[in-house]
UniProtKB/TrEMBL annotation:
<dbReference type="Pfam" id="PF02811">
    <property type="entry name" value="PHP"/>
</dbReference>
<dbReference type="Pfam" id="PF13263">
    <property type="entry name" value="PHP_C"/>
</dbReference>
<dbReference type="GO" id="GO:0035312">
    <property type="term" value="F:5'-3' DNA exonuclease activity"/>
</dbReference>
<feature type="domain" description="Polymerase/histidinol phosphatase N-terminal">
    <location>
        <begin position="13"/>
        <end position="79"/>
    </location>
</feature>
<protein>
    <submittedName>
        <fullName>PHP domain protein</fullName>
    </submittedName>
</protein>
<dbReference type="InterPro" id="IPR004013">
    <property type="entry name" value="PHP_dom"/>
</dbReference>
<dbReference type="InterPro" id="IPR003141">
    <property type="entry name" value="Pol/His_phosphatase_N"/>
</dbReference>
<dbReference type="InterPro" id="IPR052018">
    <property type="entry name" value="PHP_domain"/>
</dbReference>
<dbReference type="GO" id="GO:0004534">
    <property type="term" value="F:5'-3' RNA exonuclease activity"/>
</dbReference>
<dbReference type="InterPro" id="IPR016195">
    <property type="entry name" value="Pol/histidinol_Pase-like"/>
</dbReference>
Length: 214
């Protein structure tokens, strides 16, 4: 995190990361925490699929190396997948998209529409007109450029905040597409407020991340 005259110039947090508590990931939570700072991240939010089991394996908050570690959840519904931040421990399982969006916002959380145009698991984006999420993931590490372009067009059309996420399941994916926050983040409350107030934007362009990996 860079600080100029007491102001935060940037804070890069990868807000879409899966530990091996998600069956699709090979990354132990302890290793995510150990490696993330060296990748240039200021923070990482572990968002496993429909579980907060990782809370028993890590300590949230700032780590000795300065990395901020937070826990969210990727919540699956028939209307799409949603990244949820805030009091994720209290989420009721089995909600549909409408109930989830309503519940999270009413209880003071933040919800991001994850990869809404992914070809094999698209979201019901018509839902967002009446039940808008806090933000839309317009850059996703596992999306195609075309899928991201559709997400960006939707976010602009609905005037919703833009975020990016690595959707990391392997260590070579971790930290590639963080979100840049323009305000200090020190806990879940700060993260929720920043997302709800739109104090965020994609931190790395897809072309730059792909070039650095080649």
């Amino acid at each position: 995190m860079q600080i100029i005259r007491g102001h935060y110039l940037k804070m890069l947090i990868d807000i879409h990361v899966h530990s091996d508590n998600s069956s699709c990931s090979v990354m132990p939570a302890s290793e995510i925490v150990a490696r993330a700072r060296s990748l240039g991240l200021d923070g990482v939010c572990i968002t496993d699929h429909d579980t907060t089991a990782v809370l028993s394996q890590i300590q949230e908050g700032f780590q000795p190396d300065g990395l901020l570690v937070l826990v969210g959840m990727e919540y699956s519904t028939d209307e799409g997948d949603f990244l949820v931040y805030g009091d994720v421990e209290s989420l009721v399982p089995g909600m549909d998209g409408r109930a989830l969006l309503t519940s999270v916002i009413e209880t003071g959380g933040a919800v991001v529409a994850a990869h809404p145009f992914r070809g094999w698991r698209p979201s019901d984006t018509g839902l967002f007109q009446s039940y808008p999420p806090s933000a839309i993931e317009v850059v996703n590490g596992r999306n195609t450029e075309a899928e991201d372009a559709q997400a960006l067009e939707l976010a602009c059309h609905l005037a919703l905040a833009h975020v990016s996420g690595s959707d990391a399941h392997r260590f070579d994916e971790l930290g590639r597409f963080p979100t840049r926050f323009t305000c200090p983040i020190s806990d879940r409350v700060d993260l929720v407020n920043a997302l709800r107030q739109g104090m965020c934007r994609p931190g790395v362009l897809r072309s730059a991340a792909l070039a650095s990996a080649s």
